[in-house]
Amino acid sequence: MGMLRYVRGVVLAGCLLLISNQICSQEHPSLVLTKEGVQKIRAELGNVPLFDASLKKLKEEVDAEIALGIDTPIPKDFSGGYTHERHKKNFVILQKAGVLFQILEDEKYAHYIKDMLFQYEGMYKDLPLHPKERSYARGKLFWQCLNDSNWLVYVSQAYDCIYDWLTKKERKQLEKNLLRPFADFISIENPQFYNRVHNHSTWGNAAVGMIGLVMDDDELVDRALYGIEDDGLEIGGKDNDGGTIKIEGQKSGFLANVDEPFSPDGYYTEGPYYQRYAMYPFLIFAQALHNVRPDVKIFEYKDSVLLKSVKTLIDLSDADGEFFALNDGQKGMSYASNQVVSAVDIAYNFGGKDPQFLSIAEKQGQVLLDDSGLAVAMGIRDGKAKPFIKESVNLTDGSDGKQGGVGILRYGNEDLTLVFKYAAQGLSHGHYDKLSFSMFEKGDELLQDYGLARFVNIGQKGGGNYLKENTTWAKQSIAHNTLVQNETSHFKGEYEIGSQHHSELYFFDASNKEVQVVSAKEKSAYPGTEMHRTMAMIKWPHFKKPFVLDIMKVNSEKENQYDLPFYFLGQVIEANFEYKAPTMLHALGKENGYQHLWLEGKGVPTLDNAKLLWLNQGKFYSLTTTVNNMDELLFTRIGANDPQFNLRRDAALMIRRKNTANTVFVSVIEPHGSYSPVSELALDSNSNIAHIEVLFDDDNYTAVSIEGVGGHKALFILSNREALKTEEHKLQINDKEYQWNGPFYYIITNK
Amino acid sequence: MGMLRYVRGVVLAGCLLLISNQICSQEHPSLVLTKEGVQKIRAELGNVPLFDASLKKLKEEVDAEIALGIDTPIPKDFSGGYTHERHKKNFVILQKAGVLFQILEDEKYAHYIKDMLFQYEGMYKDLPLHPKERSYARGKLFWQCLNDSNWLVYVSQAYDCIYDWLTKKERKQLEKNLLRPFADFISIENPQFYNRVHNHSTWGNAAVGMIGLVMDDDELVDRALYGIEDDGLEIGGKDNDGGTIKIEGQKSGFLANVDEPFSPDGYYTEGPYYQRYAMYPFLIFAQALHNVRPDVKIFEYKDSVLLKSVKTLIDLSDADGEFFALNDGQKGMSYASNQVVSAVDIAYNFGGKDPQFLSIAEKQGQVLLDDSGLAVAMGIRDGKAKPFIKESVNLTDGSDGKQGGVGILRYGNEDLTLVFKYAAQGLSHGHYDKLSFSMFEKGDELLQDYGLARFVNIGQKGGGNYLKENTTWAKQSIAHNTLVQNETSHFKGEYEIGSQHHSELYFFDASNKEVQVVSAKEKSAYPGTEMHRTMAMIKWPHFKKPFVLDIMKVNSEKENQYDLPFYFLGQVIEANFEYKAPTMLHALGKENGYQHLWLEGKGVPTLDNAKLLWLNQGKFYSLTTTVNNMDELLFTRIGANDPQFNLRRDAALMIRRKNTANTVFVSVIEPHGSYSPVSELALDSNSNIAHIEVLFDDDNYTAVSIEGVGGHKALFILSNREALKTEEHKLQINDKEYQWNGPFYYIITNK
Asked: Sorting pLDDT into bands at 50, 70 and 90, what band is B428?
């Protein structure tokens, strides 16, 4: 085998001598692996534990696949079905086989790639569109161009790895019949897919660009970077998720896809689940551009936003590394995913070797088998890893950072995490959930964001695609911990309206760890109504755990019904109000998500504070909320009108306030204590909050007192109109005058 | 401090010289710790990692408590409340402080014990009954004598540890005013608690016996071993759980409590949750008897059943060490609990040093701080630990081993575990669930036993005691994976009837790993009806995972309605039959547990096999079951008539067959594949069972064919009347004659 490689090497060397310098100038591999990097990797083999382990695992996987033989079936299935999963596996294995060929110099991997590529070459030219017609942009190998693009991003790398090993004739045949037509198909033949600002297009751009870089095809590389100038698309049009295809004046191409969806803070407007998905094409193409076209200076582009976004993505995870399920997000997806392995390795290698990334890579337990992965594995080997400290952080949304954002408050070592969303719509994967929040104790969610309604890649559930409940439930406002007016979703649940608006940060202040505050306003979700939510994470010295104060102030031109749900996870332990559990369950409403809620209990406040205590994952939580005697307290459970059991049967407590224009909902959410089914010890199982009260509330100020069991007391005053830090405020409450600067005042009045 | 100890030592030595040998003959400590053992422990300190770690942890805990000061509040609360938890903590810390005093020779621990005991001495003589009146046997420090007995079991050990250190006068005062009256209170003053065969009484017996051993009080030791001869109780009477207090002719005392509830296999009739609870008094008192009264030969008693029961208890756990929730069992309780730490250490030390126990102790991560714990820690240190291999096992129930049992089938390294219950009633903690089963893949339950309806020690939930839903739901037959006739529970759900009966093993054969079978009959649950359930764990070479064949044959003198539920855990992926989901939810019935079930869907079979596929904890499962076109297929969910949210909202699929006398339900339960929300790969997500069919069914034989996707086929024939291994059988099916010996025949007919 070694000899054969040499023979081919000679043939190639001949090529180099015979043909012009310009055509053969680029050496291979050069895309992700580089000739120099491969030399270094070979030299270090056996000396870098995490790299060696990753290589061993990968070799076992590829060898097992090679043993099974090559299959490139005629496309026919959705994701979850055989042909889909087979072609997907093929491109993944091709890329890996390329890496193995380069590192191990064993030609069986090159032959495998070549043989499979020629099988694809043989079938591709006559391949019709994929028979499944659901997609707005049908692929050929897969039911959507998105997956075809995935294929080309991976196959480009495999092709790069055997480029020099192939004969010129073989290359010409592959490029003419497979690779170039493939790139054209997903771009100029599908501009509605390719020429947008969307994660789909990012994959398309990267695919076209990467094969262009390998083939030294400047036309393709330009098409990747800048899009198609005249795409012939009309303004408007809809994709399968309801996203608008052509927006007037919007640019396209890879750079536009970096410009638009990323905020200057590196927040990706669709949310972390899709950011994770998009990271791979963003960073792998960026790495390739860095290697082949350093003139583009891609890693410095937009103030190094691509590198910055990797840290941001990790910031958008809980203590177990699972991403917050903002917008369409599948719960359980975490930074252990392969895409984030790539992202972390590349960000480490090209972003100043931040040692915090090494501790994430340790948890991931694998590295890329390239220069970046080697650098990471060597850093870990050399003991350079430092803990990744997740702090409180405010992440702006929008390409200019001026379209709202996501505020994350944290206390301790992720002992308590609050995720507060006041962002833009988030493109077609956005939910109508302005000013919503979720909360975590370490890695356990206690008040949940439902996430998406989809069983990704599980064929039996609608082909593994979005289920209709994603629209009828998951995107609706009532599916979230936010305020719903008159049982209609924000922006009427209409994408066109939602996309034009975003909430506005009022202020974010995490400078004092004992009282961190994020506050934002939403004026467009319900015309004529302003919502203003302020959430403060407060730690009292005599409480073991911090708690969150939640002030939802709403002003409207007319009287409305307001619903404020809290989607607690776990089992009810106690409620301090009277309620009736119906003997029959009815859906709470007919539309806008309400049709999916069973009403399990209906009560009225007994006191001026309603309290609910629940147990989740061995920990106790209490919600204490100010109520009046006209309020209704509703226990709901998801599951009505869900004949396919597509939704989880999760519960909520909903505060319903009718016939009200202006009001304020004030709540404290409080983790306390623990329970172990092994020791059977219930520690601190009672709420530590004795009473909360709205002491003052007008257009200018809202003042809340919080009293703990034992008489500890604090006062929180919010300035509702002026968030300037320097602004002086003065307010008299019950004969006592308070003076302060800035948007809020907080004092412990009784220790 | 050291000096003071010496002075006291001298005083004691004087006592030894001055008073008669008989009274002062017993040295202290002698109960659990021994003088000799303590010497050995001191000599090994610092050389035995697990022992040293356990000591360090315990010292930190006790020192923190000592720093808080002593509190012995006037009793007032149920479990979960302050006074309950405080007194509970007190006795735990007292015992630990005694150990520390002996090992570390630091008198601060002796003073702490002495001071607290005298506080108890000061309050006890005037202490009335506990103010909470719920218990059939109210304690003084706690709401029930059970907890008072816990107190004395622990305090006896603490007292033993400082016995020699106290002056004679101090001992006399403590014994006269506190310890002896305490022992009398829980025994002769509460015979309804003390003089039974029940886990409560075991604690009482151990408490009285242990303090008797320390005080060298033969009367108490005899009362502990043999009970109270004339207890003045009338036949009958009920405890809080509905158990009968006085049963004619039943013995009492510790030995009776070893005799009666333990089967010769070491199965404790109440189930593993209570076995775990009872293990501590059984084994700690046994250890004390072994030390002080070796003439009793307690560890050899009843063919060494106490030692045997420890292995049995571990056999009754899943791969994570969590006990099967048979009868009243709280899910999550595991062999990590302190009681099992004691049991494992004692069983290792006194039961032949089985190295398998060492691997369990490693997982427990702690050892007893006594001779047994030292032996275990040294064994681990010396690398003697061996994996605890859980095999398929049949455990008989009943003191004579002739009252049914529990059959456990396992494949691989606990890859699949079937728990099949055909036991006796299980005393007052028994459920009406003859021939029910649960199933686990590793540590994840896929078809569940609901367990108890109780939040142990969580005060807000009915004082942490049994909830009424334990009776109305958890004990009822329909709460289990077993057959229910005419919507009534087995034995009408009446304890008096249930206690008189048990199911009968038909056969158990785990000799062939590829087809392991357990089969049992129940003739008394419904008079006039015989149920015969046979469950086979089968592994096919071309299936990655084993599956379970379930044959439930029922014969009745009259026509009935039969319900056979399967309580699957997880989310529905697919069903192969048509069903309607109602727009309103109604309870399925009015009583016997049916009042707690919402009907979420109602369908009819589309084919002669109904199939349900679900996803749980990242793994796919399918149920395939033979149905006829008159059957109803009901999706149910727990939660109706549960206004306090005491029940989990778990689902089931129920097969309902009406107007039928004799029939057979045949099902295959099949784990297959996996799903990861990180890789988003769905592997093997479809059922591998193509078809199952009852080929033959009469009084003598039932024959079932199982066909896999791909045409693999097997035949299983059950002899319904004769389980003898040697018996010859002959049966003709479809012109083909089969001949075999023994109760079943299994053959792969088409590979």
From this structure: confident
CA distance A284 to A730: 55
> In the prediction, which pLDDT does B379 show?
98
Phi first, then psi, for residue A456 (nearest 5°) are: -55, 125
Helical segments of A227-350, H only: 254-259, 272-292, 301-315, 338-350
Pairing between strand A713-719 and A701-708?
Answer: antiparallel
Please report residues of B whose CB lies closer than 8 A to that of A640: 583
CA A293 to chain CA centroid, Å, is 29
CATH code linked to domain A393-750: 2.70.98.70
Phi, psi of A631, deg, nearest 5: -70, 150
Is it the case that residue A291 has pLDDT exceeding 50?
yes
Helices (H), B69-198: 82-104, 107-124, 145-162, 168-174, 180-186, 191-194
* Residues B635-685: tens digit of each pLDDT: 999 999 999 999 999 999 999 999 999 999 999 999 999 999 999 999 999
Top residue of B147, B461, B680, B683 to mutate, by most chain A CBs within 10 Å, is B680
The structural domains of chain A, with segments of one domain joined by +, span: 393-750
Structure ipTM: 0.92
Distance in Å, alpha carbon of B679 to nearest chain A alpha carbon: 6
Query: How far is B335 from chain A, CA to nearest CA, in Å?
Result: 8
What is the C-alpha R_g of chain B? 28
3-state secondary structure of A509: strand
> How far apart, in Å, are the Cα atoms of A526 and each of A487, A488, B204, B298, B422?
11, 9, 67, 77, 62
Long-range contacts of B131-136 (CB under 8 A, 24+ apart): B131/B75, B131/B76, B132/B76, B132/B77, B132/B78, B132/B463, B134/B78, B134/B240, B134/B463, B134/B465, B135/B240, B136/B192, B136/B193, B136/B237, B136/B238, B136/B239, B136/B240, B136/B245
The answer, for A598 touching chain B at a CB cutoff of 8 Å, is yes
- What is the pLDDT confidence band of residue A593, given thresholds at 50, 70 and 90? very high
pLDDT for the residue numbered B247: 82
Closest Cα partner for A140 from A118, A153, A123? A123
CB A610 within 8 A of CB A655: yes
Interchain pair A331, B681: CB under 8 A:
no
CB atoms within 10 A of CB A607: 11
Would you state the pLDDT for residue A250?
83
Q: What is the mean pLDDT of chain B?
A: 94
Closest CA to A302 of A345, A342, A263: A263
At residue A207, does pLDDT exceed 90?
A: yes
